[in-house]
């Protein structure tokens, strides 16, 4: 069963080795595979080339749309696994887009990578495929707050949030643009019984200056509310570029 991947350049799948830049595994060496397509449309999304294709009228602050053919590539599960294995990393991060939209195909591919610790980045709205779930060591769940521009009934699904709150493999990573976003996180944590030790707050931004300015006021709020600050290490190291 084929997977639909994002590209670094036309025809070249976005499969690469780097350091995990965000969340609980920040700084660890990993292999990355970025899948294409998303069921949400964040106005500040920094990987809009995975979903904001020509003809898609969902808003994005850049106003740019992307040619689907140049920004998507289809690979078999065997070839995808071979490319990942060639990177010789014992940890794999599956990101997107929204990877859980391709759960069945992803399960077939991951079954070809025994011994690799798998993390999946997800927006938290899609139920994991039953064949995929046993293969996942960690879910990095990033529910989208009001400032993402997504309707709450699409982005914050109560059944899903309750599931992730009760799932010990799930870490919650919230994108924060202003202090009001922290209040929204606290309300969600209270409503869905999300343990604060499993919540990371990460400033929104694609350049170091913006991130540092927001982290300056976000850090004391993390201290006050006993939450963990996540950096965006890859932005600091490589800038806002594909394949990093």
UniProtKB/TrEMBL annotation:
Required cofactor(s): S-adenosyl-L-methionine; Mg(2+); [4Fe-4S] cluster
Enzyme class: lyase
Residues annotated for S-adenosyl-L-methionine binding in this entry: 44-46, 97, 142-144
Residues annotated to bind [4Fe-4S] cluster: 38, 42, 45
Name this polypeptide is given: 7-carboxy-7-deazaguanine synthase
SUPFAM superfamilies registered for this protein in UniProt: Radical SAM enzymes (SSF102114)
Residues that coordinate or bind Mg(2+): 47
Protein family (similarity comment): Belongs to the radical SAM superfamily. 7-carboxy-7-deazaguanine synthase family.
Function (record text): Catalyzes the complex heterocyclic radical-mediated conversion of 6-carboxy-5,6,7,8-tetrahydropterin (CPH4) to 7-carboxy-7-deazaguanine (CDG), a step common to the biosynthetic pathways of all 7-deazapurine-containing compounds.
Phylogenetic lineage: Bacteria, Pseudomonadati, Pseudomonadota, Alphaproteobacteria, Sphingomonadales
Source taxon at top rank: Bacteria
Pathway field: Purine metabolism; 7-cyano-7-deazaguanine biosynthesis
Record HAMAP family: QueE
Organism (species): Croceibacterium soli
EC number: 4.3.99.3
Subunit structure: Homodimer.
Gene Ontology molecular-function annotations: 4 iron, 4 sulfur cluster binding; carbon-nitrogen lyase activity; magnesium ion binding; S-adenosyl-L-methionine binding
InterPro entries named in the record: 7-CO-7-deazaguanine_synth-like, Aldolase_TIM, rSAM, rSAM_sf
Any single biological process term in GO: tRNA queuosine(34) biosynthetic process
